[in-house]
Automatic annotation (TrEMBL):
Residue ranges of every copy of the RNA polymerase sigma factor 70 region 4 type domain listed in the record: 116-165
Gene Ontology terms: biological process: DNA-templated transcription initiation
Molecular-function GO terms, alphabetical: DNA binding; sigma factor activity
Protein's name according to its UniProt entry: RNA polymerase sigma-70 factor
Entries under NCBIfam families matching the protein: PRK09636.1 (NF007214), sigma70-ECF (TIGR02937), SigX4 (TIGR02957)
RNA polymerase sigma-70 region domain residues: 20-81
Matches recorded under Gene3D superfamilies: 1.10.1740.10, 3.10.450.50, Winged helix-like DNA-binding domain superfamily/Winged helix DNA-binding domain
Residues making up the signal peptide according to the UniProt record: none
Family: Belongs to the sigma-70 factor family. ECF subfamily.
Organism of origin: Nocardia uniformis
Keywords: DNA-binding, Sigma factor, Transcription, Transcription regulation
InterPro entries, alphabetized: ECF_Sigma-70_Domain, NTF2-like_dom_sf, RNA_pol_sigma-70_dom, RNA_pol_sigma-70_ECF, RNA_pol_sigma70_r2, RNA_pol_sigma70_r4_t2, RNA_pol_sigma_r2, RNA_pol_sigma_r3/r4-like
Length: 303
């Protein structure tokens, strides 16, 4: 997983446990919070705490760091939930550019998908922490109990409840890489050509589209339903003067092929989607300018 952080100085030794486990720490924070910026903040706070303690007295540095990240993320998630209640329009996770072969490099490829992060949002903070630590990173209930200062029996109950909750809502979509690439190419061609019929052929009849503009940029504040409404809304937006100069590019986002919108080489938004029977079932547009930090590295690389 791509895990940029502004927390660690470039001069930090590679043998520092924080650096050694940085990928794990970022992944834990990101999957708990669904926010690249918040995950980076958590890493910075963790780094400060790590370098404020007598490190020689820490018997298990990795466990100490994971515990610190987990509890900082829990605090941040609890406060963030209150903020999201007043959020303008749909709230979507921050997109994260991942390696093209992310599915081969990490077992987190499925759980880091945008669809899964949306499901994790329906869990309570502690349930989400237990699920991520257990199901994604493979920690035992006893280890998680130590991280959270809770009885192991309680953690086991929480884990069972969270797993059942996620499984009942877990998205089941097409995972064929070649099919997704073919649909993406056709989707881009239809959008660039303004072809509403070609676009509708790619959309499931009951497709739903969500837009996260955060009240900062123009975006639909309610989900848009149906292939005709979604197609015409999309092409209508692309035809507006405000969309002039926007270039659509394929990119691997949260472990799956998606699309980023770029202006003068700078990413301004992301499109992720789910496929069912070869058609797009769900479309998610992340255009909140405060939530595209996970796209910036890709934009810089393509300048």
């Amino acid at each position: 997983m791509h895990d940029e952080s502004r927390a660690t100085p470039d001069t930090e030794s590679s043998i520092d446990p924080f650096v050694e486990h940085r990928r794990l720490l970022f992944g834990t924070a990101y999957q708990m919070l669904g926010s690249v910026a918040d995950a980076e903040d958590i890493l910075q706070d963790t780094w400060l705490k790590w370098h404020a303690v007598e490190q020689d007295s820490v018997e298990h540095p990795k466990a100490y760091l994971v515990r610190t990240v987990t509890n900082l993320s829990l605090n941040r998630l609890t406060s963030a939930r209150a903020t999201r209640e007043t959020y303008v329009g749909p709230w979507l996770p921050e997109p994260l550019i991942t390696a093209p072969n992310a599915a081969e490099e990490t077992e987190m490829a499925d759980t880091v998908s945008t669809a899964m992060l949306v499901v994790l949002e329906t869990l309570g903070p502690v349930e989400r922490a237990v699920f991520v630590l257990s199901e994604v990173f493979g920690y035992s209930h006893g280890e998680i109990a130590g991280f959270l200062d809770r009885p192991e029996a309680t953690v086991r109950q929480i884990s069972h409840r969270a797993r059942n909750h996620v499984q009942s809502r877990r998205p089941r979509f097409d995972t064929d890489v070649e099919l997704r690439s073919e649909v993406t190419d056709k989707f881009l061609a239809a959008c660039r050509g303004g072809d509403v019929n070609a676009l509708m052929e790619l959309l499931a009849p009951d497709v739903t589209m969500w837009n996260d503009g955060g009240g900062i940029v123009t975006a639909a504040r309610r989900p848009v339903h149906g292939d005709d409404h979604v197609a015409r809304w999309m092409l209508g937006v692309l035809a507006k003067p405000v969309s002039a100069g926007v270039e659509l590019r394929p990119a691997v986002i949260n472990g799956e092929l998606g699309i980023i919108g770029v202006v003068d080489g700078y990413p301004i938004g992301a499109v992720t989607y789910d496929l069912v029977g070869g058609r797009i079932q769900n479309l998610r547009f992340q255009v909140n300018p405060n939530k595209v930090s996970g796209l910036r590295a890709a934009g810089e690389e393509q300048r």
